[in-house]
Design brief:
heterodimer, A: 314 residues, mainly alpha, 0% strand, B: 331 residues, alpha+beta, 5-stranded antiparallel sheet, 12 helices, 11% strand
C-alpha cells in the first residue's frame, strides 16, 4: 500500500517538471492566415488555459477514471496512443527481455557448471565484452552489417510501406525481419550482464556447505549445479527480472529512436521534445505504475522461489 | 567472499589479471585524454575543405594545398606536374598551377579517417575522450557526493530522516530515468554543466540505498559504540569512524558509476542531448556517424569501440575490488 503515495509523489514531480519546462506548444511563428487569436482558441480547446491548481487536480482525477487527456500533437486521446505504442514496445522489448534472461541464465549456468576451463573462459569473456557495448552502437553495427553491407534486413521501421497489399504470412515475415535487428541489439548487452551475474551467484553457491555435502554424497557436478546451486542463484535473478519489467516499456528509448520503432520510448521522447504535456505525463504514469508493479511482482516471485522469503512476508 | 583456500587463490589470481587488463585499457585512454592537445595532429574542429576531405577512409594519406588565406584544397594521390600539382579531390581529378598554390603542399595523414565535414577523426576522438572523461568524472563525483550524503544521513540520523529521505529516493527510482533526463534537458539551454548536473543527479540513488544499509549496520557495531564511548561527537563518529569503513564500497561504486555514466552520456548524444558543438564527446561523434553509416562506417565505429573499452575496463576494475558484480543494469 506504500505504492499509492509513491505513485502520487512521482506523478506530482513529473507534473511540476513539465510545467517548469520552457517553451509553449501553442506558440506560433506569425504567419499568413494565422491570426493572433488562434493561439487563444487552441489553448482553450485543449483546456490548457485553466489555472495550474485546477489542471493538477483535474489531471489527478483523470488517473482514477482512466482519462489521460488529449495529446496536443496527435490530437488523439493519450490512452489510445499509449495503448498502440505500448503494444509495439511489448513485442520488441518483451521478446528481448525474455531472450536476455534465457540466454543470460543459460550462459551463466554453462560457464559456472562447466568442468572445462576454456568453456568458462570463453563464455565469461564473451559476456563481459558484450555487456560493455553500448546497445545502440551494437544496433549500428548490426545495421551496417545486415542492412548496408549484406542487404538482408531492413534498416528501420516496423513494417514495409507496401505491407498492406500482401498476404498475412508475408506481413508476418516482414514484421519479423524488421524486428530482428532492434531485438538483437536490445538483447545481447543485457544478456551478457545477466550471464556474469548468474555465473558469480552459482559460483558462490558452489562454495557453500550444503553443496560440499552433496558432493561428498557422490552427486555429480551437473546435478549439483542444476539441483542445488541453481535455486539459490535464481533468487537474485528473479529479483532482477522484476526490476527489469518496467524497463520493458521505458528502457529502449534509444533503440526505438534509432530503429524508428513506433513504441513507448519513442513516443515519450517525441512528447518531451514537443512539450506535449498530457502525453509526457501519461507516459510517466504508465512507466511509474510499471516500476511499482515490477517490484511487487519481484517480491511475489522471490517468495515463490525461496521459502525463506515466504515466511518473512507471512 | 569466503570459499575454500584453492578458490580464494584462484580468485586473487583472476582479480590481478583483471586489474592488469583494466589498467592496460584505461591507462592509454587516460593518457590520451591528458595529452590530447599535444597528440592531436590537427585542431579537432578544423574544416579545411569540406568537399575534398569528407568521408576519407582510415589510413588515408592526403595533401592540403593552400590557395589563399581561406581556401584550402585537400587532395589524395597528389603528383607534381610540369606546371604545378595534380591530384584527386572528391573523386575528380583536379589540377593546380604552381602560381595558384601558396607554399608547398602540406601532408595530412588521416589515421582514423574523416567525418562528414572533413574533420580529422583522430583529433576529434582524442578531444572526445578528454571531454567524455571530464563529464563522467565530474558527474560521478556529484553522484557519489549525493549518494554518500543522503545514504549516510538516512542511515545514521534517526528514523524521521530515514523515512523521509528513503521515500524521496524511492520516488526518484520510480521515475523512468531517461524520461527524467529528457525533461531536465529540455528545461535549460544545453551546456556541459547541465549535462554533468543531469547525469550526476540521476545516478546516485543506488549508492544511497546501499550505503544506508551499511551505515545502519555499522551504527549498531562495537566500532561505533567505542567511538561514542571515547567522547566523539555524532558527526565525528560518522565522518571519521563509520564512513571510512565504506571505502571499498565507494571504490567499487565509483568505477561502476563511471561506466554507467559513460554509457548514458553516449545514449543522450544520440537523442540530441549533449554539450553544444565546439565541445566534442565520444557519444557526439558516434551519434554523428549514425547518419552516415553507408558512406563512412568508421565515424561510428571508433567511438563505440573506445566507449566499450572504457566501460569494460571500469567494470573489471570494479569487479577487482569486489568479486560479486553489481546487479547488471538491464534497462
Amino acid at each position: 500500500m506504500a505504492a499509492v503515495p509513491l505513485l502520487l509523489g512521482v506523478l506530482t514531480l513529473v507534473f511540476l517538471l513539465v510545467q517548469a519546462a520552457p517553451g509553449d506548444p501553442f506558440q506560433f511563428e506569425p504567419a499568413a492566415g494565422v491570426s493572433g487569436s488562434a493561439q487563444r482558441t487552441l489553448r482553450h480547446a485543449f483546456e490548457a488555459d485553466r489555472p495550474l491548481a485546477v489542471r493538477y487536480l483535474d489531471w489527478m482525477r483523470g488517473f482514477l477514471v482512466g482519462d489521460l487527456g488529449v495529446s496536443f500533437t496527435y490530437r488523439r486521446p493519450v490512452l489510445d496512443l499509449i495503448r498502440e505504442a505500448g503494444a509495439n514496445t511489448i513485442v520488441l522489448a518483451g521478446l528481448a527481455t525474455l531472450l536476455q534472461f534465457l540466454l543470460g541464465t543459460a550462459a551463466g549456468l554453462a560457464a559456472a557448471g562447466s568442468r572445462r576451463r576454456w568453456v568458462d573462459r570463453i563464455l565469461t569473456g564473451l559476456s563481459s565484452t558484450v555487456y560493455s557495448l553500448p546497445s545502440f552502437w551494437l544496433g549500428l553495427v548490426l545495421v551496417w552489417l545486415f542492412s548496408v553491407r549484406l542487404g538482408w534486413l531492413p534498416v528501420s521501421q516496423m513494417r514495409s510501406v507496401d505491407a498492406a497489399e500482401h498476404s498475412l504470412a508475408w506481413r508476418l515475415v516482414d514484421f519479423l525481419r524488421h524486428l530482428a535487428l532492434p531485438c538483437l541489439a536490445l538483447t545481447l548487452p543485457a544478456a551478457g550482464g545477466i550471464a556474469l551475474y548468474v555465473r558469480e551467484e552459482v559460483r558462490s553457491q558452489l562454495g557453500r556447505a550444503f553443496v560440499q555435502a552433496a558432493r561428498a554424497r557422490g552427486i555429480g557436478e551437473k546435478a549439483i549445479v542444476m539441483r542445488h546451486s541453481l535455486r539459490g542463484a535464481l533468487l537474485p535473478v528473479v529479483n532482477l527480472f522484476g526490476l527489469a519489467l518496467p524497463g520493458i516499456l521505458g528502457g529502449s528509448v534509444v533503440l526505438e529512436v534509432l530503429f524508428a520503432w513506433p513504441g513507448m520510448g519513442r513516443l515519450a521522447y517525441q512528447a518531451v521534445l514537443a512539450k506535449d504535456e498530457p502525453l509526457v505525463l501519461g507516459c510517466a504514469w504508465v512507466t511509474s505504475v510499471l516500476v511499482v508493479a515490477g517490484s511487487i511482482m519481484a517480491d511475489l516471485m522471490s517468495s515463490w522461489v525461496d521459502p525463506r522469503a515466504r515466511e518473512e512476508t507471512a | 567472499m569466503g570459499g575454500s583456500a584453492g578458490e580464494g587463490r584462484d580468485g586473487v589470481r583472476r582479480s590481478i589479471r583483471g586489474g592488469f587488463l583494466a589498467s592496460a585499457c584505461l591507462g592509454p585512454i587516460i593518457l590520451a585524454a591528458v595529452l590530447a592537445p599535444w597528440l592531436a595532429p590537427l585542431p579537432p574542429d578544423l574544416q579545411e575543405d569540406v568537399a575534398g576531405a569528407r568521408y576519407l577512409p582510415p589510413l588515408t594519406r592526403a595533401y592540403a594545398l593552400r590557395l589563399s588565406s581561406e581556401r584550402v584544397r585537400v587532395l589524395v594521390s597528389l603528383r607534381a606536374t610540369p606546371t604545378g600539382w595534380m591530384g584527386v579531390r572528391n573523386g575528380r581529378r583536379e589540377e593546380f598551377t604552381a602560381s595558384e598554390v601558396l607554399g608547398a603542399p602540406v601532408s595530412r595523414f588521416y589515421l582514423l579517417g574523416t567525418d562528414s565535414l572533413g574533420r580529422d577523426l583522430t583529433s576529434r576522438l582524442l578531444f572526445g575522450i578528454r571531454h567524455t572523461l571530464v563529464i563522467a568524472v565530474l558527474s560521478a563525483i556529484l553522484a557519489i557526493f549525493l549518494g554518500v550524503a543522503v545514504g549516510a544521513v538516512a542511515g545514521l540520523a534517526g528514523r524521521g530522516w530515514d523515512e523521509g529521505l528513503m521515500r524521496g529516493v524511492d520516488v526518484l527510482r520510480c521515475m523512468p530515468r531517461l524520461l527524467l533526463v529528457l525533461v531536465c534537458a529540455s528545461l535549460f539551454p544545453p551546456s556541459t554543466l547541465l549535462l554533468v548536473l543531469i547525469l550526476g543527479a540521476t545516478t546516485w540513488t543506488g549508492l544511497a540505498r546501499i550505503l544506508r544499509g551499511q551505515m545502519r549496520v555499522l551504527a549498531r557495531s562495537d566500532l561505533a559504540a567505542a567511538a561514542r564511548a571515547s567522547g566523539a561527537s555524532p558527526l565525528r563518529v560518522a565522518l571519521r569512524h563509520l564512513l571510512p569503513q565504506a571505502t571499498p564500497l565507494l571504490a567499487v561504486n565509483t568505477a561502476l558509476r563511471l561506466a554507467d555514466i559513460i554509457l548514458l552520456e553516449s545514449a543522450l548524444s544520440l537523442l540530441g542531448i549533449a554539450a553544444p558543438p565546439p565541445a566534442v564527446s565520444l557519444g557526439g561523434v558516434m551519434a554523428s556517424g549514425s547518419d552516415a553509416l553507408a558512406e563512412a562506417w568508421w565515424i561510428a565505429a571508433w567511438p563505440g569501440l573506445l566507449i566499450a573499452g572504457m566501460v569494460f575496463a571500469l567494470r573489471s576494475a570494479g569487479a577487482r575490488f569486489l568479486r560479486l558484480p553489481d546487479p547488471p543494469s538491464v534497462a
